[in-house]
Structures are given as C-alpha cells and as structure tokens.
C-alpha cells in the first residue's frame, strides 16, 4: 500500500509537473484531508505527522496520541506548477482555515502552519497577520507558524479515511439495524440472519486488519 501511494505521487508529478506542498496542523486530519481535496488545484492530500522536538524519532499514531510532540497534519499537495493564477499558497491557507477543526491547548490537534522555507514562513506569517474570525470563533491569529524539514506520512489506514469508511459504516449500521428489527419481528430466515452476522464480523475484521497490516509511517521531506 505504502509503495503504491508513493508510486502514484511520482506518476502524477511526472504527468502534471512540479508541485508545491503545504503542511498544516488542522485538528483530526481525517475530515480536512477530504475537504481540501475539493479545492481546485489540489490534486492530492495525505495525512501525517510533523512538529516533534526530535524529528528523526519515528512516530506512529499511538506515540502521537501519547504526547510525543508531533502534530496530526494534512500535507496538501498542490500538484501543479506553482501558478498562483490557479491556486496560491494563500488560497490553500484560506481553505485550510475554513476546514480546520483544531483543539486549542492540545499539541496533537493544534492549528499550525508548518513552513518548509523562510519564504514560506514569511508568507504564512503575513497570512496570519491579516486576521479574521470564523463564525465559530476560531481566529487566524490562533494559528502558529513553525518551520520543519520533516514530514512523516501516517499509517495507510489513516489515508482517505472517510472515503473508505463512510460506505463501510453505512453497511455496518444497516446490518445491525436489520438484525435488531429481526430480533423484534423475526422475519429473516436463519440463513439470512447468519449472513448478516458474518458480514458485520467481516467489516470489523477489515478494520482490525488494516490497522495491523498497514501500520507503517514513512519519513518524507517537508
């Protein structure tokens, strides 16, 4: 799975051209990674970790949850030549601000712009200085700007999480609901009831299997 993701990224870059990346701490990375993919000019988003005091220490989801200093991030890969007529760094930051769901006071879920260069840090700081507030009270000034040259691609089961699991959860809830109704009305034949149970168990095993078999993190440049 991991080698496939990196291969796809390489093919896209070869076909489309050079790209810039923005690495952003936006709270839990599952939803923002999906939302930002809808921005015109963004071709790929990947979940990962950045911002630890010791960036060479390999993180994983458990260590990040345990407080190792890493922040859950969404690296927004703008897979185009950096033509600001289509999408600029500031456009990506605007979209990220709208999509962010940070937890203030939490390092893991902190709102942070991780700059990969001095120029990017200056642009991020200027973006923060513009100010602005969302309807829910989140302000631009609450975004920190930090520099990093290390980004860790998160475990494969975090990538495209809702795209994969939304239909799976829907199927699981439908199966559970059907079996609950059957427990009250007794309308399913035994074979159908057994099939529902087997499918629900398979979905659960898929969840566990992905976490065991696709649990590597990979170090990338910022």
Automatic annotation (TrEMBL):
Its EC number is 1.8.4.11. Transmembrane segments: none annotated. Keywords: Oxidoreductase. It is an enzyme of class 1 (oxidoreductase). Residues 21-169 form the Peptide methionine sulphoxide reductase MsrA domain. GO terms for molecular function: peptide-methionine (S)-S-oxide reductase activity. The keyword Phosphoprotein does not apply. Coiled coil: none annotated. It comes from the Eukaryota. Belongs to the MsrA Met sulfoxide reductase family. This is peptide-methionine (S)-S-oxide reductase. It comes from Pelagomonas calceolata.
